[in-house]
Amino acid sequence: MSYYLYSKEEFIINNVNEDTAAFTLSVKRYIQDFLRGIRIQSIMNFEMELTVDEKLIIGEYASGDEGEGVIYLKSTQLDEEGMNRLLENLEFHKSIHLSLKYTGFFFYFYYYGINRFAEILNETLKGYVTFMASEEQEDELRAYHFRELNGELISGFMNDQDYRNYRHIRDWKIDQLYFDLILKEPISWETYYKVEKEAYRIGAKYGLKVEYEAYPSFAEGAPMADPGEVIFDRPYIEGTYDHEKETMTLQEMENFFEDISIIYDILKDHVSMLSDRLKLIPLYKKDGEAILRMRIDEEKNLMLSVFDPDAKTNVYTHYVGDINRIKIMEELFKDWDVQIPFPEETIK
User: Fold this and answer.
1) Of 159, 260, 141, 284, whose CA–CA distance to 208 is shortest?
2) Measured between alpha carbons, how far apart are the two ends of the chain, in Å?
3) Residue 217 carries which DSSP code?
4) Which pLDDT value is given to residue 347?
5) Most exposed among 152, 189, 281, 344, judged by the fewest C-beta atoms under 10 Å?
6) Around Cβ 121, how many Cβ atoms within 10 Å?
7) What are the percentages of helix, strand and coil residues in the chain, rounded to 5?
8) How far, in Å, CA of 97 to CA of 12, rounded?
9) Can you tell me the distance from the alpha carbon of 323 to that of 96, in angstroms, rounded to the nearest whole number?
10) 293-332 exposure pattern, b = at least 16 Cβ within 10 A, e = fewer
């Protein structure tokens, strides 16, 4: 029972009092958890840069046989004993800068990434600790900042940006284009045929496959239609795993959004969720790492927006106890008769 997590994290610590020492101790245990593989099913990549009082340690992942691998440390300033000693005494050092970038599958009930640190960051660390992270947890994108800005404490999740502020990025690479609108209940046949007409019009216009059929297929005599979901997907070039369409301009995406909105407005009251697998990234690296996507906001409106953890204009939703998909799954697992093994050093 594990979930996918890709994360980029940065910690800057001025360790000068008991509160910062306690936080640094948590960061030390975090690094040690990676090195020991605590509650980690598999790591695909791991990059670490740890600078402690001007001494640099690099952490990298090397794959091994049968998919197993190891994270190893190296430094031009310290030997193996010196690196281990520095890590073991991390909470006694003053200046600490840690950057992490990793991808892997992590077991439930033991947190990595934003969930790990958003729970323990508080106002006593203002001005002493900076923590910034962006992650993809399953198919959910999140960015979290804890930092001081103009004397004010910024602590919370970054909201998406207005896509119109990104018109300077003309060309976008299609990272994922799989629009899956999931319904929570059957719909009237009148509504079903309205959506069907629009769905196949949109599919033909953009060269997309359409999956939309009432279940069971012979249910026309029933009082309600039950299609379950509306799916648009890119077809593959015959005989290959390559898609026919690899890029879109912002204008094309805007037009697609307007067309999709027609279907969403028809089905809005019947929608359970939108699977967030429609993402475009800048074609050229010079344009940064923003992600153009569709999502449903808190008021159930379909939105076209940009997820950009490096945005200069930041609007935040304050952290008041995160309820995300991983925690929802853990709540479901609590009722299962499942034993969760923990190594002895984790329990201690």
Assistant:
1) 260
2) 23
3) T
4) 35
5) 344
6) 18
7) 30, 40, 30
8) 5
9) 30
10) bbbbeeeeebbbbbbbbebeebeeeeeeeeeeebeeeeee
pTM above 0.70, yes or no: yes
pLDDT of residue 292: 95
Place of tokens 């502020």: 165
Rounded CA separation 265/296 (Å): 12
Q: Mind giving me the DSSP string for 105-151?
A: EEETTS--THHHHHTT--GGGTTTEEEEEEEEETTEEEEEEEEEETT
C-alpha–C-alpha distance, residues 213 and 169, integer Å: 37
- Report pLDDT for 325: 60
**What pLDDT, on the 0 to 100 scale, is given for residue 323?**
58
Grouping H, G, I as helix, E, B as strand and the rest as coil, residue 204 is helix
At 246-300, the pLDDT tens digits run: 899 999 999 999 999 999 999 999 999 888 778 899 999 899 889 999 988 888 8
Amino acid 140: pLDDT? 84
> Over the Cα atoms of the chain, what is R_g?
24
Instruction: Kindly report the backbone phi and psi dihedral angles of residue 261, in degrees, each rounded to the nearest multiple of 5, phi listed first.
Output: -60, -30
- Point out the residues of the chain with pLDDT beneath 50: 338-348
Tokens of 348: 């201690």
Between the alpha carbon of residue 242 and those of residues 68, 174, 238, the distances in Å are: 29, 12, 9
**What is the domain partition of the chain in residue ranges?**
2-159+315-347, 164-307
Side-chain-facing half-sphere of 103: CA atoms under 13 Å? 4
What is the spatial order of strands in the sheet that 95-107 belongs to?
69-74, 55-63, 40-52, 95-107, 2-14, 129-137, 140-149, 152-158, 316-318
Contact 14, 94 (CB under 8 A): yes
Q: How many helices (H) and strands (E) does the chain have?
A: 7, 20
Per residue in 298-309, pLDDT (tens digit) is 888 999 999 998
Per DSSP, 159 falls in state: P
β-strand pairing of 209-211 with 229-233: antiparallel
- How confident is the model at residue 101, as a pLDDT? 97
